[in-house]
Amino acid sequence: MHLPTNPNLLVGLAVSDDAAVYQLDAQTALVQTVDFFPPIVDDPYTFGAIAAANALSDIYAMGGRPILALAVAGFPEDFATATMAAILQGGADKVAEAGAVVAGGHTVVDREPKYGLCVTGLVAPQRITAKAGAQVGDQLLLTKALGTGLITTALKRGQCREEDIVAAVASMLHLNRRAAELAAEVDAHAATDITGFGLLGHAAEMARHSGVGLQIYAEALPLLPGALAYAQRNIFPGGLQRNRQHLEASGYVQYASDVDEAYRLLLHDPQTSGGLLFALPPPAATRFQAACVASGELCALIGHVVVGSGIMVYGKI
Questions:
Q1: Mean pLDDT of the region 197-216
Q2: Handedness of CA 256, 246, 10, 184 (dihedral sign)
Q3: Which sequence spans correspond to the domains of the chain?
């Protein structure tokens, strides 16, 4: 497929990043993304807020600041008006928390409810944090715990502890806003947000675009309560296996012998509203971690950028 291009399109289909970026002038570029999905929790307001946080995350991953959102939704014909209103309100409130505003949207009739946002943000062209900037010697830092896919799957199967889903929902509702602001202060080389392709899927995109290899340490991963136990019980979403097969079939991901099977599942677990993965030079990484701790943000050192290609997973650092 051949698509027309434009010199002002700084990030588009040709480079496959978290969001599109279009330059307006020397100081300003637009960042735009769209994301929507079916409910993953029972409460409609919470579902709307999670879906909004997930969509906003792409703007933060690019180093941008969201300013405007349009709702995108599909609802069954017999869907309760109060339920639709709760979903839309949850999304609007989360957008407001991000300092942006929902200005409209579009809905269609669909047998399965779906909701999300088209989000527009602003970024200075020289401050874009694309996937392609990781450099050899960088440290890899992750800003949210993993396991939302396993935990929500356990919930659907009626096998999830209440405290585990509460922790997972809190994580999914948490905006990546502050983490992105702190990373901008230390000049991150590269960034991406961790969503449906799992940690290794999104890390692989960073490695490929940057022309480097990655080393990731399984036991350094931050995990949500219960996530490891559900992986050990083989409770995982179908998308996890698709993620895994895609990377392992080509040999792009390899594991040391001490990497437990449960951790291999967690590394491919599709995340909803997951954290940001940053590649930063060591001095900047140290400052970023300290700033995150001071701000109450999670920040875990999970690996390093190395010469080569592909991803090697070890058990321990």
A1: 97
A2: negative
A3: 9-126, 129-314
Q: Which fold has domain 9-126?
A: 60s Ribosomal Protein L30; Chain: A; (3.30.1330)
Q: Crossing angle of helices 44-61/177-185, nearest 10°?
A: 10
Pick the CATH number of 129-314 from 3.30.310.260, 3.40.50.1450, 3.40.50.620, 3.90.650.10: 3.90.650.10
The four Cα atoms 177, 124, 91, 57 give a dihedral, to 10 degrees, of -50
Give 317's pLDDT tier (boundaries 50, 70, 90): confident
- For the whole model, what pTM was predicted? 0.96
pLDDT at residue 1, rounded to an integer: 63
The DSSP bridge partners found for residue 275 are none
Q: What is the pLDDT of residues 254-270, one digit of tens each?
A: 999 999 999 999 999 99
Same fold, 9-126 and 129-314: no
Give the model's pLDDT for residue 16. 79
The gap between the terminal CA atoms of the chain, to the nearest Å, is: 43
**CA-angle at 112, arms to 171 and 245, nearest 5°:** 60
